[in-house]
Amino acid sequence: MSRRTEEIPQNDHDPTDTAQGEPDGDRPQGLAKPAAATSEDPAKPAAARTANGAEPADGPDTVPDPGSDRQRPARSWEAVRHLLVRLHFYAGVLVAPFLLVAALTGLAYTVTPQLDQLLYGDQLRVEKVGDAPRPLAEQIAAARAAYPEGTVASVVTPPSAEDTTRVVLAIPELGEKQRTVFVDPYTAEVRGELTTWFGSTPLTTWLDDLHRNLNLGETGRLYSEVAASWLGVTVLGGLVLWLGRSRGQRAKSARGALLPDRKARGVRRTRSWHAATGVWLALALLFLSATGLTWSNYAGERFGRLLDAANGNAPALDTALPGAQAPVEDHSEHAGHGGGEATADADPADFDAALTAARDAGLGGTVVVTPAANAASAWTVAQNDNVWPVHYDRVAVDATSGEITARTYWADHPALSKLSKLGVQGHMGVLFGVVNQIVLALVALGLTAVIVWGYRMWWQRRPTRADRRALAGRAPERGAWRRLPLPVLILGIPAVIALGWALPLLGVTLAGFLVVDVVVGAVRRQRRTA
């Protein structure tokens, strides 16, 4: 066998290896491998034609249709692979741009803690660590003297000895956002103020919006949900295709699936890097897909229903004071960071009383002290330690007597609530500190490389003969679903419907791909009969 024959690369999106005019990385410039016979090729073997001379609709594997002279596709398990190939192709070509944007914006978001320290270090850090912090009442008084507008919504104690205290002011003109005043806890000196959103600095808020919605509001959130919905499907489909191919055509060892083939040339070399990198990133990408969907618009609403049905929500803290006539429960996951509805400031001394009671009850680390909503309610003190091991205990405090009236423990949260909370923190890169940031950055860079390699494969598979040039590689064979085994159809159709319900944007875009596929098939059939 000649060198030219044995090193013809295989088409990643053509499992039968019958790609037309595919360039060979080892072939001299200007030469292309012979094109496979097509339905338009008069030299196509007669065995591939039907009894009356017509071409089969979607592929060469057909069987007689009883009671008709037409041929129908033969069912086989290989059709499952063909279908996955076409689905992976559509996702790669049409959805990959969404994934690329999500990867790059997510990469930028991973370094927000460092960027915050660089840009807002004067507000976030103290000049000199003192012996002991001043009372909260004194720090609040200094903040209110400098910024008298609005009301005190909460106070966040410093995360470390080098950090400032945050006095959060609710200002109606800012809507969901707040004005946060940063105070040196050792001198009660005001270090500055920032407009924040649930505790995030302006830069972090902007990058968060860029990642979630491209700074386009609710309309832009469709992009991130499409990306998160298809990411998991694309990863799982790619794993099935690559691991199945590795078993059949590469070394029967883990090396064949986990490492790229450095001896390959052309499209095979690109495919091996694309697939092997995808295998290494698979678990992290599936994690990002699942956690990202939990707070998306449509899939997130479905996830909320699941939590409700499974009693998986975080326990509510009862803030009603004993003997109060109108119990008030705090259901907010972000209690203490939002703009409160109070019309007048609480007594600053009560902040110290509530903090002292919470500390005596065992709440250590960073805490958020939130004033009572009204005279019938207790104050809330909530732990806010997001780095593992996390601390999310909360207490309701009667600031007048210093009595703890209610408490919720992180240990008592349902499993689904814990997984959801920890998943979000891991997705945001804060759960394991700098290590979490590094891992997410590497995953984002890896996903970017996988997408670039995917488009390179598409380009490398384009026909290169002088009479058959094309801008990009052709799509895989269509119509594989008509050759699927009956068990796959019987189980697969309900599964796809259920998945489309759980992930609505995945279902809508998948239906769009199907419509495109049907239209393309109809156009091709019309051309054949013309």
Strand count: 12
Main β sheet profile: 8 strands, antiparallel
Helix % is 40-55%
Order of helices and strands: HEEHHHEEEEHHHHHEEHEEEEHHHH
- What strand order characterises the main sheet? 6-5-4-3-9-10-11-12
Strand content: 5-15%
Overall mean pLDDT stands at 83
Shape: elongated
Total number of helices: 14
Derived from helix and strand composition plus strand pairing, the structural class reads alpha+beta
Indicate the low-confidence ranges by residue numbers: 1-60, 331-342
> Radius of gyration over alpha carbons?
30 Å
What is the rounded distance between the termini?
42 Å
List keywords for this structure.
single chain; alpha+beta; eight-stranded antiparallel β-sheet; two-stranded antiparallel sheet
Task: Describe the model.
This protein is α+β, with helices and mostly antiparallel strands and 530 residues long. It contains 14 helices and twelve strands. The chain has an eight-stranded antiparallel β-sheet. A hairpin with a 6-residue loop joins β1 and β2. α2 packs across α6 and α6 packs across α8. It starts with a helix and ends with a helix. Mean pLDDT is 83; it is low at 1-60 and 331-342.
